[in-house]
Amino acid sequence: MALIALAADKGSPGVTTAAVALAAVWPRRVLLAETDPAGGDLVYRSAAAHGGPLNPNTGMLSIAATARRGLVPDQLWDHVQPLSGGLEVLVGLGNAEQAAGLAGLWPTLGRAFAQLADSPHAPADVIADCGRISGDTPAVEMFSQAALVLLISRTEPEAIARVRDRATALSAKLHGGARGAAALGTPLIGVVLITDPSESGKLVHQVNDMLVAAQTGARVVGTIAEDPAGADQLAGRKRGRLDKSLLIRSARKVTSDLYQQFGAAWAVPAAGGPNGQATAGAGR
Fold first, then answer.
1. pTM for the full model?
2. Which of 150, 143, 157 lies closest to 11 in space, CA to CA?
3. pLDDT, tens digit, for every residue of 132-167?
4. Strand order through the sheet with 148-153
5. What angle do helix axes 246-262 and 15-24 make, rounded to 10 degrees?
6. For residue 36, what are the CA distances in angstroms to 7, 47, 90, 129, 205?
7. Contact at 8 Å (CB) between 143 and 149?
């Protein structure tokens, strides 16, 4: 199993929705971790399994004290809360000021997330919602432990330019320099575009050509539908058949493609937990 880190650059929101959507349809047991140093959103937008609100003090905030004494991967489960649909989440910080409590601990967290695959009791993949990142964002310190870093981007010209530049900067940081398409490094840097499905094919080719020309070492690995109604259903703000929404159908296609390409390397049997259905989504 694996750590998959999701992030975006300035002006490209949508990371949390993408992270929840991918986690909701993940084919094996998965832990969704809100690791945005600026603070998490799920405590405000999603209900807990008991029908009430999530506890903002159980999650990244509570894990800080544990991690300072060393962190065994199985200890992560002590800080996890289930959403109303069954998805297991590590709730994010309440605000950016609380990130000081995690100073110096981001590599420890990255190792624990990556090593959760080897848990003898409850192995799981981890999808980490890292929010918007810049060169000095501490969550980037987890990326070297990830199997895959996914940059979420919308498709306005300025967003595409930023994702190209961010991919280039991450490639330099993680791989030591620019890379051509034939020299992809580990962790792989992938791009997921949030776009109108009718335009996705053309945009994927255009963005891939730009990423290759800039020797970013990144490539587009999929698209997620721009679907406000589906996002509202996922967040519990609107009723409807979430599994039929464009958002969930496109997220399922992304996860299927990822597993087709990388599943063999992540093939560690999972024990128990949700089975990755869309009903594991937030606040439904």
1. 0.90
2. 157
3. 998 789 999 999 999 999 999 999 999 999 999 999
4. 81-82, 88-90, 30-34, 125-132, 3-8, 148-153, 188-195, 218-225
5. 70
6. 9, 19, 11, 6, 30
7. yes
